[in-house]
Task: structure prediction
Amino acid sequence: MSSPVLPSHGRVRPLGLAQVRLTGGFWHERQAVNASATLAHCEAWMERLGWLANFDRVADGTTGPDRPGWPFSDSEVYKLLEALAWEAARTGAPEAEAAIERLTARIARAQDPDGYLNTCFGHGDQPPRYSDLEGGHELYNTGHLLQAAVARLRTHGEDDLVRLARRAADHVCRTFGLAGICGHPEIEVGLAEFGRATGEDRYVEQARLFLDRRGHGTLRDIPLGRAYFQDDLPIREAGVWRGHAVRALYLTAAAVDVAVERRDDELLQAVERQWERSVARRTYITGGMGSRHQDEGFGEDWELPPDRAYCETCAGVASVMVSWRLLLATGDARYADLIERTLYNVVAASPSPDGRAFFYANPLHQRTPGRSADPDEVSPRAEGGTRAAWFDVSCCPTNVARTLASLHGYLATSDDDGLQLHQYAPCSISAELPDGRRAAVEVETGYPRTGTVRVRITADAAAPWTLALRVPAWAAGATLTDAGRTREVAPGVAQLRRAFRASDVITLDLPVEPRFTWPDPRIDAVRGCVAVERGPEVLCAESRDLPGPDALDALVIDTGAGLKAGDGAALARALLPAHPGGGWPYLTHQAALTGDARWIDLPLRPYRTWAQRGPAGMRVWLPVSTPHPEGE
Amino acid sequence: MSSPVLPSHGRVRPLGLAQVRLTGGFWHERQAVNASATLAHCEAWMERLGWLANFDRVADGTTGPDRPGWPFSDSEVYKLLEALAWEAARTGAPEAEAAIERLTARIARAQDPDGYLNTCFGHGDQPPRYSDLEGGHELYNTGHLLQAAVARLRTHGEDDLVRLARRAADHVCRTFGLAGICGHPEIEVGLAEFGRATGEDRYVEQARLFLDRRGHGTLRDIPLGRAYFQDDLPIREAGVWRGHAVRALYLTAAAVDVAVERRDDELLQAVERQWERSVARRTYITGGMGSRHQDEGFGEDWELPPDRAYCETCAGVASVMVSWRLLLATGDARYADLIERTLYNVVAASPSPDGRAFFYANPLHQRTPGRSADPDEVSPRAEGGTRAAWFDVSCCPTNVARTLASLHGYLATSDDDGLQLHQYAPCSISAELPDGRRAAVEVETGYPRTGTVRVRITADAAAPWTLALRVPAWAAGATLTDAGRTREVAPGVAQLRRAFRASDVITLDLPVEPRFTWPDPRIDAVRGCVAVERGPEVLCAESRDLPGPDALDALVIDTGAGLKAGDGAALARALLPAHPGGGWPYLTHQAALTGDARWIDLPLRPYRTWAQRGPAGMRVWLPVSTPHPEGE
Result:
């Protein structure tokens, strides 16, 4: 069966990618753009920058100190290969298949006879293999190679890519049997899944070794501290995610895999505890993770500045990886809630509508508009506000590509008794249940613009099965209509069990009217502000909907006036005070409004669409004008 | 005359360091500790780490790729020399004089015949001279050498240090006549003052060349962007400080020097404009500058997060350098206001009471206590919360040392008609005015603990002169008592003009009761908070005065209850709400208080003393419970 993650057991099981098909709507369109534009865009950039030729140069013995790209550029090729493998299976597109063969052939030539495969170390005048475990990313690269091979093996079967990945994985197991970890976790999640896909448990065991070896200060200390690469504390002892967000999350994804395969409940509970605290205290309303630019890392509890939010797109992808694994292990709807939030407000925010430019950082407040990116230019910086065609460090585009190409795999799961719908999009699903029962449905919906989700049964059942529908945590007042009867369903999971008949229709109605959302009072950076959400979408204000360059700094929302429909996804009533200019900004009295203040209807639009109309200032959190003492 | 800065003209003139003597109080004590502990501490660390031996190794031809220290470690030796020169003149201490001769002899041996002097480039296997202008700090080092030589020349006269500095300066002028600037400004301010001290205008001219050459993108672009080293915009065109804070401020100090020497009002006005906007929108209530750890830099307008405030100690020193030069040029009391604020709340916050440990970063909110620093350990990180004995990058200790050793130079100025007192401390001042008039006073005060400043005239005047007393901007309601008559004086400057008689006493009474201070509503990060100040001191709450580890996160101040005297510098009435634990922190309603909330009297202490009782959580900005709509 083909799916990015296939645990040997768990509360629910992934459906194979062939069992789910997106048939329309937002994600279907994103998949189409990914297929028609992003995949070729990524390959073209890597060709242009010499990241692909790095493999040829190793094979030809011509690589040298002038090798272009960072040490981790090989991983971008592998992430593209993973995306191509999912895409080739999704549509059978011959271009994707041809690209896989083309790239695989070049990679294969660069592999050393003992299985080592890397274009930055160990050849010509390059530093020796594994001479910089902290920063060299060699095992990180191999981890992405293994994830690509998993995709290929599950969608196509054994081929040259899978064979070379086996040799690379064997090389890692031989070399790192006794000691050593990589500064950037990823080999662990790659090995664990490769072990599952090949049926070779020793790969899972090597992943476990890497996991348990970490956290004992075996990597060299660095100015950012060992927490940066999670070598400060063993994962079983840590209480919260910290350090570089993508590293922390890739490591955690592997920890779930190992915990499940080893039936290691202690490890699974440690991860769930970390998820809980990190989501409660270190996660943005968008689902974004990473509060600091300095180390691309988590901040401390309650440190969630909207303007300096890093919220790397890759951390969004990695967060989905973690929550998906926890959802499979536990069936708990809270994981699907976070996946949905992160997909709409981080992963989908990154790519431009044409699929050829990407946000790297996803701040929640942009004070000055970003620059207009030249589509022919490599952005040297991971700044917010600018979707760039490519980056000097360009991890995000291929991460978006592989996630979108396999996105239909994250919509639903099954268990012995039925089907669980976690994400709502127009789609067709068919799953075989035990005892010859078939659970087949088609979903029709305009979600998230509208809240009505129609689930039509498409196969008669010989025996009862259970249809479980996630009711998002924000959806208080949701209703379920079945056979003409409507009942309210609480956030969590709504279940129906019977011998469904083809053409039965179950309708879930989710309240997607725009709503105000208040932050925990301990989140210092957004005290005295509200956000506006609509269904799973976080909304934002953009400077181009406001008069004058300073209005975004000064605006104040009247929550008492409610929210209206109008231009954008919602309209809020906002005051634009005139502030006296200049002078020392710390005052002996509270600032008073001048007579020049005026009221406007402030358009709010989905956060993920921001800056699509051009560079703009933006803010998610809106200062409130109404008195809001605690306790009221 | 001896003083760190001696412009050829200006609205007011510095007094020579021999004309002002601190006789007691806070700064006098800091000078004593600096003399008795910090100077030897710095020399011992630089000996231990080989930063001093780097000069010997160049002289002996034994330096190599294993040279310890960063490329800018030479500058620490020079900053220590500058501190020693001021200190030797202040007290005539033979240890300081001996240290100057000892260090000078070692430095002199390392100078190349053509005047080049640097331990990191140009010798043995080192990279060639000036092969890394962006990061090599060669001219930066030379700038600090020149500042040390200025101190020596003005306090002692020509000696080996001054002679070698001349050769180094001449080398710079020969080498950089046509092109090139240093990634870290400092050579400019060093050359300008060295030109003043030696009377050689060509050094001032070279400073002008460097200044005008900057801002045209001559340095290589870097991931942080050219704004990092102010090579993005010519200084005459820039509207605000940006990029690395210390770089921006050293550059600006030089710009004032050049503007004054060249009577270049356009340049002076550009600097004043930048000061105004930067102080109004990019400066912390402590006077601290630098909102970002990532680049040790200014943020954008209104980007002033208290928890991630960098507020490097050196930026505080550099800010004082800038404002002092502007004060001399213009006489405007606002510059003295900022100097006072910065001295008490940044510069004085850095050193421990024993003068052997230092804050590098000075955040306004510490969520988790820093570590206890080992006095025998080099701190690898510029983190907040820990005063460390020494740092891997250890610019701050020597910067504090040179500032404290010359601090009496920043208290007062004179002009043709009198004396201006800018900072209040127990001191003795004597200045010659034109027409044989002598302005001599003694100041007695317990400031800033108490607000009464007694200025006793100590010499009869043959003719009238003007005594000008700064009334700080926060001191509304201040009174001046002269000859039994008391009148209210407005913030700014209070002046008295007459033929003063010895033993006349003028008393300034400043209201130093603790007071609430509100931020401009556009400073997003502290919306809904107040600070508490007392005179020029910013106060803070520390976790060790609170029950339980989470109280600092949750506390809420009732401003309506006012402030009381008590333990610490003030007591505020604070509520400690109990927050429900865990869960998604973005709520469909405003958080309500639970029945477990309780009221306490919260001690507030001077910010500069924080963590002196041991590692602690801390916050300057305190959430408020009272309704505080704009416009009330």
Observations:
- The first strand of chain B starts at residue 13 and ends at 14.
